[in-house]
Amino acid sequence: MDTLPKAAVQAPSGPRKTGAGAFGMSHQELRGLLKRRLAPVLARIVVLVGLWVGLGAWVLQVDVWWGKVAIWAMMGFVINGMVQLSHETWHNNLFEARWANTAFGVGLGLLVGISHAALKHDHLMHHRHNRTAMDPDAYNAGRDSLGQRVLFYAVVLFGLPLSVIYFNVLYPLQWFERRKLPGHFARVLLGAVGYAALFGGLWRVGVLGQALEVWIIPLIATGPFNGLKSIADHHNNVWRGGRFQTATTVRSNAVVTWFWSGLNYHLDHHLFPRVPGYNLPRLHRHLRPTLLKEGAPVYDSYLSTMWAALKAGPLVVDEDVQLVSVKRRREDG
């Protein structure tokens, strides 16, 4: 398990200048990186949906269990690309219009059965309070305990199914204002009724088994990909550290970078969250000299970084992570 030495708790470091100038970029270059383009977004959507449909049709034709497992693994990799597109909607980085980002995010949320509003709220809070006790995504850090280790590996392996419960119920109870809870839970209840009616209809027409094979099981297979990416994105970070030590960038191969929308450049994303994912590799070329100079966690292999994060386990800190949010909710009530 990864243990945090006291000396690692440090004040923010890095250049005194902020923004493009701190990294030798002109404002014109930064404006170009911030520009949202429709073509790469549509290309990803078409390819990801096409592969999901194609692999789904294939898995229905395979009879041996190991063949199905292999195809489900491929589908999990592809669907995790859809999850990264959902991430882009939380920052309004996918489309120019905010309503289009919201509509697409809500649609993807319905596809996986998770509240888009809760996901977006969680992620923006994560950016605001990254690697502190108020970080709602800091499941991979906390006091040394069996429960913390179980939570860490459970999220890595079964993150997507667990997210259905967490983001639809537990997260809103912790973080949402009380006045917003009735509307949220009304929408969750409406969605649950809709899913029940849908699955009931699929069962009545005799295609529920096929729906499980091309939809539900692949979603479960997405969990490990998303979980491993999540722990790699914050591997070897410093608790309450400076801006160059609280997220991790991994230069992966071109296939992973394309399918997962460039968000393996995760430190770059935290430094410039309004840069669309497909522009992050270009941004990294500007940031890399400074990141290396600052000793930032920058690696060149996703597989080895995921394995290192998996072996390290949760970061041990002498602080009650996320309990601050519970206390605040009680005070609000």
The global form is globular
In percent, how helical is the residue content? 55-70%
Q: Please state how the strands of the largest beta sheet are arranged side by side.
A: 1-4
Number of helices: 13
Largest sheet, described in full?
Answer: 2 strands, parallel
Report the count of strand segments: 4
Instruction: Name the poorly predicted regions.
Output: 1-16
Radius of gyration: 20 Å
Structural domain tally:
1
How far the N terminus sits from the C terminus, by CA atoms, comes to 37 Å
What does the oligomeric state look like here? single chain
Strand residues, percent: under 5%
Order of helices and strands: HHHHHEHHHEHHHEHEH
Helix/strand-derived category reads: mainly alpha
3D structure, described in words:
This protein is mainly α. It has one domain. Helices cover 64% and strands 2% of the residues. It is built from 13 helices and 4 strands. It has helices spanning 27-34, 38-61, 65-90, 98-112, 116-128, 146-175, 181-204, 208-233, 254-259, 266-271, 280-293, 302-312, 323-332; strands at residues 141-142, 249-250, 298-299, 315-316. The strands form 2 sheets. The chain has a two-stranded parallel ribbon. Helix 3 (65-90) runs antiparallel to helix 4 (98-112), helix 6 crosses helix 7 and helix 8 (208-233) crosses helix 12 (302-312). The two termini are 37 Å apart. The model is unreliable at 1-16 (pLDDT under 50).
